[in-house]
From TrEMBL:
Residues 69-218 form the Peptidase M16 N-terminal domain. Substrate recognition and binding subunit of the essential mitochondrial processing protease (MPP), which cleaves the mitochondrial sequence off newly imported precursors proteins. This is Mitochondrial-processing peptidase subunit alpha. Belongs to the peptidase M16 family. It comes from the Eukaryota. PROSITE patterns: INSULINASE. One of its GO terms (biological process) is protein processing involved in protein targeting to mitochondrion. Pfam families: Peptidase_M16 (PF00675), Peptidase_M16_C (PF05193). It comes from Sinocyclocheilus grahami (Dianchi golden-line fish). Residues 224-423 form the Peptidase M16 C-terminal domain. Heterodimer of PMPCA (alpha) and PMPCB (beta) subunits, forming the mitochondrial processing protease (MPP) in which PMPCA is involved in substrate recognition and binding and PMPCB is the catalytic subunit. PANTHER family: METALLOPROTEASE, MITOCHONDRIAL-PROCESSING PEPTIDASE SUBUNIT ALPHA.
């Protein structure tokens, strides 16, 4: 301390109080004597990023003369995500062999009128640091590209060509058949049964209609799908009125300009669109059961094999994402939460959700209990997936039916607030990602013609009350259950027993008495 004080005594008053001091270079010449708060001579004034009211973060939407919507969201950065979303998916295949959307996903970004091959497309994107992807769901097909903002013109040109001018060559279709067969084989062999169970629960809930139609191409349809059939489908569904060009990280006027240049007067390779042939069926919830008896004993062998499990998914009809009740259902789904028995704990991991507290923490033999909420423009499905040893299937089913019945109880204030806070934080964290913002913008504009901003959704979540959650649960429990079961099903209760449990006051299965075990 004494040494420090003596050093300070040797300094001048200006040095001690941080006042600008003229110091010398090693050459002997003096530094310019300038205060740090004074702008340096000859240096341009810095321009700082600022937010000027709503216009900086609101989604801008323009509808072109041919009906195509252009939507954009400004976001700081030198990269952008741009894509075309089409109101087309497996739910629209009622008049066609199932699997067309699956084929189109695999055929995406192959050779087009301008590009000889997929490699040429990838090389073009590489010049702008870009990547491309196509994903199909039950109701939407999404072609997306992430690249440098400077390459926007090239990106929109490429997207237009990939969506409206694909060649669909015989060798490309044959390669797609091989890829589809491999994916179907992999679906039945993978240790994670969730994609297969999701497919089964939709088939049970919406038997033979709209979102209940298979998302993956059935094996018997692989050879049936050819260029002629694909063109016939594309003619009906790939028309401008059913498309949105969405972009994140670019100026709206620039995107509109590119859309007019490459998407306004373009004749598709399949000829004139015939939107009159579009299937406008509304989802009909039927309820029911889909079972698949399967030997799960050798799903994952090795030094730490997964034990043989039976997987059950029980679902009830919720609501469309277009109605007000969608938000209380989202809060209810978050309140149920759940996960696997090996999930690591910690803040925000959902360890205080009902399926952890009431199920996984109390019944050590259960390997998984997770809540899912699937929502579409005309219906929805809230379901719980559980897995356990085949000998304890009956007990597992009863635990899940009791959880459904207990949803009708009034939620505690702390429990409800925690679920709402978790839902808001999940929403905001997901919307940090540019591709997620792109998908959110595209899907909302495609479905409703506008976009609800994150702060509006957070306000709606905050307004959900315990009575709202109770009301939507009571309404949900009036529907017939949908059940998907996979594995050894020798101990599975009958569908009638599951239905009776969900209609009872306590959720218990009817007692069965056996003379011999």
């Amino acid at each position: 301390m004494a040494a420090h004080m003596s050093r300070l005594r040797g300094w001048s008053r200006a040095q001690r109080f941080g006042i600008a001091v003229c110091r010398q270079y090693s050459s002997g010449s003096a530094y310019p004597c300038v205060s740090l708060s004074t702008p340096l001579p000859g240096i341009p004034k810095p321009v700082f990023a600022s937010v000027d009211g709503h216009e900086k973060y609101e989604t801008k939407i323009t509808t072109l003369e041919n009906g195509l919507k252009v939507a954009s969201q400004n976001k700081f950065g030198q990269f952008c995500t741009v894509g075309i979303l089409v109101n087309s998916g497996s739910r629209h295949e009622a008049k066609y062999p199932s699997g067309i959307a699956h084929f189109l996903e695999k055929l995406s970004f192959s050779s087009t009128a301008q590009f000889e091959s997929k490699d040429e497309i990838l090389l073009t994107l590489e010049k702008h640091g870009g990547i491309c992807d196509c994903q199909t769901s039950r109701d939407t097909t999404m072609y997306a590209v992430s690249a440098e903002v400077k390459g926007l013109d090239t990106v929109v040109n490429l997207l237009s060509d990939a969506v409206l001018q694909p060649r669909l060559l015989d060798e490309e279709i044959e390669m797609t058949r091989m890829a589809v067969r491999f994916e179907l084989e992999d679906l039945n062999m993978r240790p994670d049964p969730e994609p297969l169970l999701t497919e089964m629960i939709h088939a049970a809930a919406y038997r033979g209609n709209t979102v209940g139609l298979p998302r993956f191409c059935p094996p018997e349809n692989v050879e049936k799908i050819d260029r002629k059939l694909l063109h016939k489908y594309l003619q009906s569904y790939y028309c401008p009125q059913r498309m949105v060009l969405a972009g994140v990280g670019i100026e709206h006027e620039q995107l509109v300009q590119c859309a007019r240049k490459y998407l306004l007067n373009v004749k598709p390779v399949w000829g004139v669109s015939t939107p009159a042939n579009v299937d406008k069926s509304v989802a009909q919830y039927t309820g029911g059961i889909v079972k698949m008896v399967k030997d799960m004993s050798d799903v994952s062998l090795g030094p730490t094999p997964i034990p043989e499990l039976t997987h059950i998914m029980i679902g009830l009809e919720s609501c469309s994402f277009l109605v007000d009740d969608f938000i209380p259902f989202a809060v209810l789904n978050m309140m149920m939460g759940g996960g696997g028995s090996f999930s690591a704990g910690g803040p925000g991991k959902g360890m205080f959700t009902r399926l952890y507290l009431n199920v996984l923490n109390r019944h050590h033999w259960m390997y998984n209990a997770t809540s899912y909420h699937h929502s579409y423009e005309d219906s929805g499905l809230l379901c719980i997936h559980a897995s356990a040893d085949p000998r304890q299937v009956r007990e597992m089913v009863e635990i899940i039916t009791r959880e459904f019945i207990q949803m009708t109880g009034t939620a505690g204030e702390m429990e409800l607030e925690r679920a709402k806070t978790q839902l808001k934080s999940m929403l905001m964290m997901n919307l940090e990602s540019r591709p997620v913002i792109f998908e959110d913008v595209g899907r909302q504009v495609l479905a409703t013609g506008k976009r609800k901003l994150p702060h509006e959704l957070c306000e709606l979540i905050s307004n959900v009350t315990a009575s709202d959650v109770k009301r939507v649960t009571m309404k949900m429990l009036r529907s017939k259950p949908a059940v998907a079961a996979l594995g050894d099903l020798s101990e599975l209760p009958s569908y009638e027993d599951i239905q009776a449990a969900l209609s009872s006051k306590d959720g218990r299965l009817p007692r069965i008495y056996r003379l011999f075990r």
